[in-house]
Specification:
By secondary structure, the protein is of the alpha+beta class. 16% of the residues lie in helices and 35% in strands.
């Protein structure tokens, strides 16, 4: 019985120390660390203002139009291949500043925008019409995403339109 007891103690000690001999005192696992750095988005007007010039009032309603290919260009830059949402709206032009300086009656003139895009082409080639809210992919140009937007539009002159210099601000917005 004494030998059985010693045997049990010996086996128990071997199992205890043996388990500890084969157990690991440290372990490790790996995980990949990622970051997607996107080029910041910007838009710039390349050509200045959209100017309809001097228009003589005749007492008849008339629409004056500048087509996008004869209008102004905007250049959007950002992350290549990334979609951007293009938004814009029509503009109400006023003659308020002119009336303040010269007298007369305040009036408004409606400008309806017409926007086209030519992808990465800085010349008006293979243009597609753009509606506000459309998503368009930026074209890869040596690691920079480009998109050219072209602005034209129409002003609707009423038969009883007041004279003056009409101005308003058109805003083109792009967002990822």
């Amino acid at each position: 019985m004494k030998q059985t007891k010693i045997f049990f103690i010996a086996v128990s000690l071997m199992l205890f120390f043996g388990a500890n001999l084969f157990a690991q005192s440290s372990a490790s696992a790996t995980a990949e660390v990622k970051a997607q750095l996107k080029k910041g988005l910007s838009i710039q007007n390349l050509d200045g203002d959209l100017d309809f010039g001097e228009i003589i009032l005749t007492g008849s309603a008339v629409n004056q139009t500048i087509t996008p290919d004869n209008g102004i260009r905007f250049l959007v830059t950002g992350h290549p291949g990334k979609n951007v949402t293009v938004t814009f709206s029509n503009v109400t032009l006023t003659n308020n500043a002119w009336v303040s300086a010269n007298g007369g009656n305040n009036d408004v003139l409606q400008f309806t925008a017409d926007v086209d895009e030519t992808g990465g082409n800085s010349t008006y080639i293979s243009a597609n019409n753009v509606n506000s809210g459309d998503q368009i992919a930026l074209v890869n140009n040596s690691g920079i995403g480009n998109l050219y937007l072209w602005l034209g539009g129409t002003i609707a002159i009423r038969a009883d339109q007041e004279q003056g210099d009409y101005t308003g601000t058109f805003t083109m917005t792009v967002a990822y």
